[in-house]
Amino acid sequence: MGKCEICGRENVSLLYARQKDSNSLVKMCQDCWRKAYAENRLVSGSGSSGGCCS
Prior knowledge:
Layout: E1 14-18, E2 25-29, H1 30-38
Antiparallel strand pairs: 1-2
């Protein structure tokens, strides 16, 4: 749970994605991720819901 770097909503589950325009990795809520994906603003294969297995 955290704060969306796009819309500012707090206490939401976050997804990480790299945006094409800035090439920076940002944390965003599911609503902002869906909107950015629909507008083709995300780098393919960069989205994740966190965590990594070792």
